[in-house]
Amino acid sequence: MMRVLKPLQDKAKTGAGKKLVLPEPHRIRFLIRGEGSVSAGAVTIECCPESTKAGKFWMELATIPVPADNGLAQYYTEEASGVFRARISRPVSNGTVTVTPLVSRGRPDRPDRTKVV
Fold first, then answer.
1. Could you give the C-alpha distances from 60 to 63, 79, 86, in angstroms and in order?
2. Which CATH number describes the domain made up of 2-106?
3. Closest residue by Cα to residue 114 from 88, 84, 90, 86
């Protein structure tokens, strides 16, 4: 079962967006939705492992072209923890992009400290 969180990018054309903080390992699915008649643009999914200072070292996981005509693309990770972001690495033209993270549910006996900041 996956839980939908607040978007990391919300109808954006440029920028680094918000960050997803995962103190404990979870499976993550990123939904990348192009809105409008998008003709260019790309989103790079990046991770900053917990072992480094948060936000100081970003590791590229994947670069996904923004889908045209209100299309949807997806990116999955195995169990991972750390800080994640969906940076717009090529500006979006003729539309916008929304990137929404979905995370696996944690153990019911532990508090969930997952958040979007």
1. 8, 16, 10
2. 2.60.120.200
3. 84
The reported pTM is 0.90
Residue 108: other Cβ atoms inside 10 A: 6
| Residue written as token pair 């900041």 | 117
Give the start-to-end residue ranges of the domains of the chain: 2-106
Residue 5 has pLDDT above 80, yes or no: yes
Say if residues 111 and 15 touch (Cβ distance below 8 Å). Answer: no
Rounded CA-CA distance 11/95 in Å is 8
CA dist list (Å): 45 to 40, 83, 112: 17, 11, 22
Structure confidence at residue 8 (pLDDT): 97
